[in-house]
Specification:
With 460 residues, the protein is an all-alpha fold. 79% of the residues lie in helices and 0% in strands. The chain has 19 helices and no strands. It has helices at 5-22, 24-35, 39-67, 69-89, 93-121, 124-155, 160-163, 165-179, 193-216, 221-243, 251-254, 257-274, 277-286, 292-298, 300-311, 315-319, 323-341, 349-376, 383-435.
C-alpha cells in the first residue's frame, strides 16, 4: 500500500472530479422533470461546476504552496464529499447549482495538486508509470461520465450520481494522510488574492455572456457589458501579475510559446472532445428514444478508447516528441466530430458509436501528456504553477465549450456543433504542432527543462 497508496488516492480523486464534469449529462432529463428545471437551469448545473473548477484552480494551487499540498488536498476531498451530499439532497435547481459550485471548489483543490503529489511520491521509472496511469484514468473518467450516469440513474435514480461520491471521499480522506508525502508550506509566500479574484471575474463574465447571449442578444448592452467586463478584468489580471512577488500566474510562462502551445492543446481538446456530450445525450433520449442506460452505453466508447489508448505503451510514446501524439490526438478528435456530423436521416446512435471511438483515441493520446509536458518545459520552481495553469486550461475549455455549444444548439442543431468541434480540434492540432516544435521527447529523463530548452542539471 505504501508504494501504490499515493497513486490510488490521487486517481480516486481524479476519477470523482472528472466523472462529475459529465456524469450529469444522462441524468439531466430525469432531474429536470423532478425539480422543474428549465434548459437554462440545466446549463448552469453543468457550468457552475466546471466554471468553479476552472476559475479556482489557480488560487487553490497557490494556497497549497502556502499551507502544504497534503493538507489542502485532504481539505479539498472533504469539501467535495460534503458538497456531493448536498447535491444528492438538493430540493431545487438553484440549490443544486449552488452545491455544484462548492463541489467545483473541492475539485479544484484536488486537480491542481494531483500532479505535484505524484511528482513528489515517485522517482525515475515509477514516476513515468504513475503519470501514465493517472493520465489514462483521467482520460477515461472525463469521458465515462455518461455511461456511469446512465447506469446509476437507471438503477438508483439521478440523485445517486452524487451520493456515490460520499463513501469514496470518506475512504480517501482517511487514507490520504497515511500515504501522501507531507510537504511543508511556504510561510513567507503571500497569497495572490487580487489575481485570483480578477481571473475568476473574467472567466465568469465570459461564460455567463456566452450562456445568456441568445436570450439577451449578442449586441445588447448587457452582452457588451459582460464581454467588455471580462476583457477588462483579464487586462487588469495580467497587469497585476507583473507586479506581484508571488503571482498566481508568472507572466513569463505566458510568453513562452511552448507553454502557450500545451495550454492551447488543453483547451481545444476539452472543447472538441467533451463539450458536446450533453447535447448528444439529450438528442439520443429525445429523438432516438433511448433510455438513460442505453444512452450511456452508446457513449461508452469514448471513455473505453481513451483509457486503452492512454495506457498503451507503443513506440510512438517513447521515441516521438510530445507534439506528435498531441497534434495527432487532436486530429483523431476532429475526425470523430466529422463522422458524427455526417449522420444520415436514420438512427443516430451508430454514428455516435463510431465518432466517440475516434474521439476517445484522440483524447487518450493527448490527456496523459498534457501535465507531463507542462512540467517538463518550465523551471523546477514553477512546476506547481504550471500544473495548476494546465489543469485550469482543461477545465476552462470544458466550461467554454458547454457555453459555446449551448448558444449554437438551439438555432443550428447537432450537425453544426460537430463541425465546430472538428474545426476547433484541427486548428488546435496545427497550432500545437508549430508551437511545440522545440519540446524534446521525455523517454529518458523526468527532469524539467529551462527556458532555453536545456534540461536542468545538464551541461550546455
Amino acid at each position: 500500500m505504501r508504494r501504490w497508496g499515493p497513486l490510488i488516492t490521487v486517481c480516486a480523486g481524479a476519477t470523482m472530479l472528472l466523472l462529475d464534469v459529465t456524469i450529469v449529462n444522462v441524468a439531466l432529463p430525469e432531474a429536470a422533470a423532478e425539480l422543474g428545471a428549465t434548459f437554462t437551469d440545466l446549463q448552469w448545473v453543468m457550468d457552475a461546476y466546471v466554471l468553479a473548477l476552472a476559475a479556482l484552480l489557480l488560487g487553490t494551487g497557490a494556497v497549497a504552496d502556502r499551507f502544504g499540498r497534503r493538507r489542502v488536498y485532504c481539505s479539498a476531498l472533504a469539501t467535495f464529499g460534503l458538497a456531493s451530499l448536498c447535491c444528492g439532497l438538493a430540493p431545487s435547481p438553484e440549490l443544486l447549482t449552488a452545491a455544484r459550485t462548492v463541489q467545483g471548489l473541492g475539485a479544484a483543490g484536488m486537480f491542481a495538486i494531483a500532479p505535484t503529489l505524484l511528482h513528489a511520491s515517485y522517482q525515475g521509472r515509477m514516476r513515468g508509470i504513475a503519470f501514465g496511469v493517472w493520465g489514462g484514468v483521467s482520460a477515461a473518467a472525463a469521458a465515462a461520465g455518461p455511461v456511469v450516469g446512465g447506469v446509476v440513474t437507471h438503477l438508483l435514480g439521478w440523485r445517486w450520481i452524487f451520493l456515490v461520491n460520499v463513501p469514496i471521499c470518506l475512504v480517501a480522506v482517511l487514507l490520504a494522510p497515511r500515504v501522501l508525502p507531507r510537504t511543508a508550506g511556504d510561510s513567507g509566500r503571500r497569497l495572490d488574492v487580487a489575481g485570483t479574484v480578477l481571473f475568476t471575474l473574467s472567466s465568469g463574465a465570459l461564460v455567463y455572456g456566452l450562456i445568456r447571449g441568445n436570450e439577451l442578444g449578442w449586441a445588447s448592452p448587457a452582452s457588451v457589458a459582460l464581454f467588455g467586463g471580462s476583457a477588462l478584468a483579464m487586462a487588469a489580471f495580467l497587469l497585476t501579475e507583473r507586479r506581484r512577488s508571488f503571482p498566481v500566474v508568472d507572466p513569463r510562462l505566458l510568453r513562452d510559446g511552448r507553454f502557450a502551445g500545451i495550454s492551447l492543446a488543453a483547451i481545444t481538446m476539452t472543447v472538441a472532445a467533451y463539450s458536446y456530450l450533453l447535447y448528444v445525450s439529450l438528442w439520443l433520449q429525445s429523438r432516438d428514444g433511448l433510455s438513460p442506460l442505453l444512452t450511456g452505453l452508446v457513449m461508452a466508447p469514448l471513455g473505453f478508447a481513451a483509457m486503452v489508448t492512454a495506457l498503451a505503451k507503443g513506440r510512438l510514446w517513447s521515441t516521438a516528441p510530445p507534439r506528435t501524439p498531441i497534434a495527432g490526438g487532436l486530429v483523431f478528435v476532429g475526425a470523430g466530430g466529422l463522422v458524427m456530423a455526417s449522420a444520415g436521416p436514420g438512427p443516430f446512435w451508430p454514428w455516435v458509436l463510431a465518432g466517440t471511438t475516434l474521439a476517445g483515441v484522440g483524447a487518450g493520446l493527448v490527456s496523459p501528456l498534457l501535465a507531463a509536458t507542462a512540467l517538463s518545459i518550465v523551471p523546477r520552481e514553477r512546476t506547481g504553477m504550471a500544473s495548476a495553469v494546465n489543469a485550469a486550461c482543461r477545465q476552462f475549455g470544458t466550461a467554454l465549450g458547454i457555453a459555446l455549444f449551448g448558444a449554437l444548439f438551439p438555432h443550428y442543431g447537432l450537425r453544426v456543433l460537430f463541425l465546430v468541434s472538428t474545426g476547433v480540434a484541427l486548428a488546435g492540432a496545427a497550432l500545437t504542432w508549430v508551437l511545440l516544435h522545440e519540446v524534446p521527447r521525455q523517454d529518458r529523463k523526468n527532469t524539467p527543462v529551462d527556458h532555453d530548452g536545456r534540461r536542468q542539471g545538464s551541461r550546455s
